[in-house]
Amino acid sequence: xxxxxxxxxxDLHIAAxxxxxxxxxxxxxxxxxxxxxxxxxxxxDSRWPEQTEWQRKEAIYHRIVGEFNxxxxxxxxxx
Length: 79
Description:
Structural class: mainly alpha
CATH class: Mainly Alpha
Oligomer: single chain
Number of strands: 2
Strand order of the largest sheet: 1-2
């Protein structure tokens, strides 16, 4: 349920063009995941396909980098 609301907040930030806040919101989900080979199911909203936990975490971090770039807050990338 927590991740569901994280993405609701993420969508609100994207709609408002708050890309930096959207990136920090995605980071909340990434921090819940580990780098394991555990297979995760496709999400109910089809946001994420079936994939291993590390693949999803990596994909989320790629989105985070993209949002920081769109928000022109590149110094946050090195944290």
